[in-house]
Amino acid sequence: MLLFVVYAVLVCYGAFIGRRRLGGWAAIAAGILILVMVNTVHGHIARVFHYGDLLPVFRVLMYPYMGLVFACGVFFVMLPIELPRGELHCRLCRYDLTDLIEEMQAGGRCPECGATLAMTSTRRGRRQARLQQRIRDTSSPEPMTGLRIRLHPLSGQQSDDRADQQDQQRQPPDEEPAGRRKSAV
Ligand SMILES: [Zn+2]
């Protein structure tokens, strides 16, 4: 019987890990599918071993259990992906926009996927932005895809020269603080 508890926890864990993504829903679907299969196989076994009369006793527990696993899975898959306070991340591609807050609020586009804040605030806008991104990617593929993946800000600490390369591609180099520049002159 403990196995049922462990199974439910596993499905919920899968839903939680893949939350707000297709993976979480896939975990729930797989979890329910396996239960349906177990139920069917058990039905056949019961008939072969002639205890089919007792099947309703098993199923009166099995069906609510499936409902429970599904409901818990949906709860976990819908949990928000928490982001550190004070940081801004693109709601479409999760790109870190913390340094671009002002530009983004003025209607700027995410450097990674090209979506604006207004677009990503609604489900419909996100779908549209994703579609536009796909069209862009297929019509003019990113020339430095490999480099772009390695330079992703979530990949941890970047060495100085990787950071320099990124500056050459995307952003002007950092300006020296005004105070220090004056004192140097
Ligand atoms: Zn983005």
What does this structure look like?
It is a single chain. This protein has 185 residues and is mostly helical. The chain folds into 2 domains: 2-77; 98-173, no CATH class. Helix content is 62%, strand content 0%. It is built from 9 helices and no strands. The protein has helices at 2-17, 22-48, 55-77, 101-105, 117-120, 123-139, 145-150, 160-169, 178-184. The radius of gyration is 26 Å and the shape is elongated. The N and C termini lie far apart (78 Å). The relative contact order is 0.07. The mean pLDDT is 82. Zinc ion binds at residues 90, 92-93, 95, 110, 112-113, 115. The site of zinc ion has 8 residues, from loops.
Give keywords:
single chain; 185 residues; mainly alpha; 9 helices; 62% helix; 0% strand; binds zinc ion
State the helicity in percent bands: 55-70%
What are the segments in which pLDDT stays under 50 over at least 5 consecutive residues? Answer: none
What distance separates the N and C termini?
78 Å
Task: Describe the global form.
Answer: elongated
Sheet with most strands:
none
Fraction in beta strands = under 5%
Mean pLDDT: 82
The class by helix and strand makeup works out as mainly alpha
Instruction: Tell me the domain tally.
Output: 2
* Oligomeric assembly: single chain
- Quickly count the helices: 9
Bound molecules: zinc ion
Q: Which value, in Å, is the CA radius of gyration?
A: 26 Å
The SSE order reads HHHHHHHHH
What is the count of β-strands? Answer: 0
